[in-house]
Each structure stands twice: as structure tokens, then as C-alpha cells.
Amino acid sequence: MVKISHISIRRRLSATLLLITFFLCILSGRLLYVQIINSDSLRTLAFEQWTRDLPFTADRGDITDVNGIKLASSMTLYTMYCRPSDVKEAEEIAAFVSDALDIDKTLLYTRLTKKGVSEVRLCRRVTRAEMLEVEQRDFSGIYFTADSARYYDQGDFLTQLLGFTDADNKGQSGLELQYDRYLTGINGYSYTETDLIGRELEDGDTYYVAPQKGMNVRLTIDYYMQAAAEKAVKDACARYDAKSVSCVMLNADTGAVLAMAQAPSYDLNDIPRDDVNALMENSSLNAVTDMYEPGSTFKILTSAIGLETGATKNSYYCGGSCSVDGQRIRCWRSIGHGSQDFRHGVYNSCNCVFVDVALTAGKDTMYDYFDKFGLGQKTGIDFYGESAGMLIARDSVKNVDLARIGFGQAVAVTLLQLASAVASCINGGYLYRPYVVEEILSQEGELAYRGGSYVKNTTISASTSEKLKDILYGVVDEGSGKNAAVEGYKIGGKTGTAQKYADGAIAAGKYISSFVGFTEINGSNIVCLFLVDEPQGYVYYGSIVAAPYVGEIFSALFSQYDVPASGETAKAEVVMPDITDLSFSDAAALLKKSGLDYEYAGTGKVVYQLPAAGAKIEEGALVYFAMQE
């Protein structure tokens, strides 16, 4: 008989106990994982097995103007579901719903009779009236849930800046996309206890988790200024059959964007999704994304540089052109402006004057100030897709290039970029970063984001700013900007007319007509830049095409905000004479006799005039005529 030692027994017992302990540890670990670590996940799985959940889409936050007027809000639509196991009259339901909601009958019937599912979504975005029409039939197995859909309270208003959402209420463009994480709410749900095949239990409970609305975004946009700008761009686009018309308004003292209007456009409640190319083209915010050659509106910046650096002279002579590096540079007025001082050179928008200023200041000085004005740089606005504009590299600039830049050629800017630079010229020399969002607040009023003024740079001195403002007031009172004047109010500004280029050459008959104006409203300096891209017909000068609309915008705002007039006496009315078929000299003499100023194009006899003969206009108004051989 084999004798087993006590040591061997103890070893076997120890090994057995160790093995048992090991398995107990594994079991305990598994229980710990299941009951504690993974309990929430398992509880959720179990809850999903014995409940049916229906979503309730949360409202997006509102977007309002600076005064609290709603621009984008939420409306209630409905989603129709069915429980196939409870549907008793699938054919009848499919026929009725197909007629009522204009949905394919065969598709509806397929969904109504689908096997192996607890519920099926039949259609979305059902109106309340449509929902009530279906519910009146009391079909078995049919039910609705409330959804949130985006609604734009003003329709075709601030379209490109606001942007739009998709069918799932997610931002797709504009501010809706850029601030989607703030605007999007948290969806809610209802949970109903069901059996294994998804049928609702008679004694089961229903749990409801309320949706949470997204945050509200308050813009710097002023509804009344935007409304005036919207009317003006639509009127100008229709009158001149233009490719596009854009308008930007800034508070020059803060950088706040007050209006951004654009035409053609579309109603945000009726988005043309069936024409993707047109939708993309009309959804781009031209004032931020598109570059253009500014023409004579740029002369404000050249004037500011000349006055600040002493590069202006007491006297200039314009014979209709000047020569730089052997190249002839024409003034817009082929017969020239004769002798004039700097102030009247600005009034007349004389190219020769600004060629001289740019060359006198010199390349390095001009480019140093271009940097201060933010040219060739993004403004930093809180909106995506901004262009930086274009400047010829400093090292590559020749004298003839600098001469052309001086009067607004051979340089490209965005509307917002130029408006910001001009604002610095009239606010004492401060270049502000423009911004469109004032603040973002939760539904409880907690601040999540705040915009605000930020000075990027100083451009010119306060004294130079005052001198320039006085000259620009004179442009509207006496010079090429007369058509922007509003009786009894001080308005300053500058006209601009630039030819467009295609494939490196001048595109015949294609122009950009613009006017940048400024005035004071309730203690703030307001800048308004208005641009008409490719006006059709004989008329294309900014003084005729764009300036009157800035005057209309300011006039509407003076009335809206009860800005008192200075009490100046009204100008006398005159009747526009008939100058058709007259030579230039005869037409000019007749207009001068009538007390009218003029701009013209072409040579030969007059074939077109604006206004028409017999129209009553103010004495001293600027009129236009075109001639043809």
C-alpha cells in the first residue's frame, strides 16, 4: 500500500483551492462587468426590446435681427407612421393617403403591409390640415408624431447670409451651417411598452422625454436697414436687367454689419432644390466671396493716402489722358477736365489726378497703406468662404501698374473689404473687423457666444479723416454723386464705374457700376456700398445706376428713425429737355441752360437720354446721355 504524505495532500488541496479561487475571481469579475460596468448598456438593450420609441424633433434656435425681430424660427409639421400588425384596411388607407398627400399608392401599400417590423414611417412633413384630414377617418394602425421644421419669417430676406437647412433640420449653408452646433436642439422621445412583436400592451406605460430647443442667435443685422436694402437691390436688378446687384451696410464706428442684400435671390421657404446650379449660384454671399475691380470708389483710399502723406497738389491739369512709362492712360472724360484743384479732382472723379497722387506717394508708401487698409487680406468676418481680394505683388509693380491702381484698376476687392476700408476713412482712422453675430443665448438666457468690436489697425489720422469726409460730402452736393443726395441731409460718397475683363481682355459692354455712401443716423456713421453687376442698355455709370439707390436707402432710414432734416430749402424743379438727335455741344449747352449736370458716352448724335424728355427733376441733378455715329 502506497503511503501518501501530508505534504502531498496539502499541495493537492492548495492547487484545488487556487483553481476554485481563480474561477470565483473570473465569475466575480464577470458579475462586476455585467451588473456594474456594463449595466447601463444592458439596461438600454432590455429597454429597447420591450419598448417602442418615437422621436420628437427638437426646435432649432431662433435667428433674430439686432432688435429681436425673428428671421428664422421653427414650425410644427407631422410624421405619419403605421403599425403593420394593426392595419386592417391597407388598400383603403393607401388609396386615401395617396390622394390626400400626393404620395405613390403602391409605395404606401408596400409599407402598410410590411412584415416583421413594429412600425413603419409612411411620410414626413405633413401639415396640420393634412394630418386632421387623415385622422378623421380613424384608420387602425395609423398615428402621427410632431416634428420641427425650419420656417423663415421674412421669406426672401437676408437669404444668402441666413442659409437653409435640409429635411433633417441640419444646417446646409449660411449661418444655419456655420452655427449649426448652437442652433441644433436635443431631440425628445416617447417610449411605449410593447410585446415581443411590437404590439402596444393594454396595461403598458408610456414614457416621454421632452425635446430641448437649440440656442437663439441674435445678429447685428437691422431689420429696417435690411428691408430698405432688399427693396433697392430688387428694384435695380429688375430695372437694369443686371447679372446681380449687391448691397452692404456697416456701422463704421463698430464694424457691425447692418445689412447684406443681394438679387437675384429666392424665398427660403421655397428653395429651388430641383436646379442645383442655380441654387448654388444664388446661395453664395457675393459681398464676402466675390472679388471685383472697384473702379473710382477706390479713389477714396487713394485720396486718404494722398492727404495723409502730403502727396496731393494744389493744382492739376487733365487733357483727357496722361502718359506713364510710355503708355497712355485715359480719363473717363475724353475731352478732359482742364485745370482743377484736388478737391474738384475728386468731385470730377478725374483719373489723371489719382494717377499723379499714386505716383507722387510712391510704391512703398501706397503698399504700406494698402496693408493698413487690409487690402489683399481677409477681413476676418465671422462667416465662412471669405475671399482676400488681389493685389499685384509689391516687387512686381511697375509705375504704370501703380498709376492704374490709384484710380481703381489692376486691383481686386470684395464689397465687404472695400466697405470696411472706407469706413476707416470716415470714422477717424480705425479699421474694424466686421461681424454679423451679436450674441448666442441658451433658452435659459445663458450667454454661449458674444461678438463685438475689434480694431484691427489704424489707417489715417483723425484730422485727415475729417478733411476727406468734407470732400466726399462735396461729391454728393456738387460732384458726380449728386443723385445720392437727400434734401436736408448730409451724405458723402463716391461713384465707381469699372469695365469687366474676360480671358485677359476687356469684355465689351460689361461694366460694374457702384456707389459707396455714408451718413450719420442716430449718432452712428453708416456706410452703404451698392454694386450693380453688368447693367444692360446704354446706362452704366455708377453715378446714374447705383448712386440713386443709396439715396433711396438713406431716405427710407431717415424716415424710419425720425432723423430730423437740416431745414435747407428745396431745390427748384426743372423739366428735362429733349436732346435726342443733337450733337454733343448742342446737348451740353441745352442741359447747362436748364441748370443740369451731365455724364455721357460715345460720339456723334444723342440716341439715348435719362431721364426721358419732359420728366421733372431737381435743378442741378446729374443726367446721362449716350451718343452714336
Question: How would you portray this structure in words?
Answer:
Its main location: membrane. This protein has about 625 residues and is α+β, with helices and mostly antiparallel strands. It contains 21 helices and 28 strands. Strands 2, 3, 4, 5, 8, 18 and 19 form a seven-stranded mixed beta sheet that branches. A five-stranded antiparallel beta sheet has the order 10-9-23-22-21, sandwiched between helices. The longest helix is centred in the first third of the chain and has 32 residues, at about 5-35. It is elongated.
Uncertain stretches of 5 or more adjacent residues? none
The portion of residues assigned to helices is 25-40%
Shape: elongated
Given helix and strand content, the structural type is alpha+beta
Largest sheet: 7 strands, mixed
Q: What is the straight-line distance between the termini?
A: 139 Å
Residue share in β-strands = 25-35%
Estimated radius of gyration: 35 Å
The overall average pLDDT, rounded, is 89
Features:
membrane; 5-stranded antiparallel β-sheet; 21 helices; 26% strand; PASTA_dom; PCN-bd_Tpept; alpha+beta; 629 residues; penicillin binding
Topology:
Blueprint: H1 6-37, H2 39-49, E1 51-56, E2 63-64, E3 70-82, H3 90-101, H4 105-112, E4 120-126, H5 128-135, E5 142-151, H6 159-162, H7 174-178, H8 180-183, E6 188-193, E7 206-209, E8 216-219, H9 223-240, E9 244-251, E10 257-263, H10 276-283, H11 286-289, H12 299-309, E11 316-318, E12 321-324, E13 327-330, E14 338-340, H13 342-347, H14 351-361, H15 363-373, E15 390-391, H16 399-406, E16 411-412, H17 415-426, E17 430-432, E18 437-441, E19 447-450, E20 455-458, H18 462-477, E21 492-502, E22 505-521, E23 524-533, H19 542-545, H20 547-560, E24 573-575, H21 584-593, E25 597-601, E26 605-610, E27 616-618, E28 622-628
Parallel strand pairs: 2-8, 25-28
Antiparallel strand pairs: 1-6, 2-3, 3-4, 3-5, 6-7, 8-18, 9-10, 9-23, 11-14, 12-13, 15-16, 17-20, 18-19, 21-22, 22-23, 24-27, 26-28
Helix pairs in contact: 3-4, 9-20, 12-14, 12-15, 12-18, 14-16
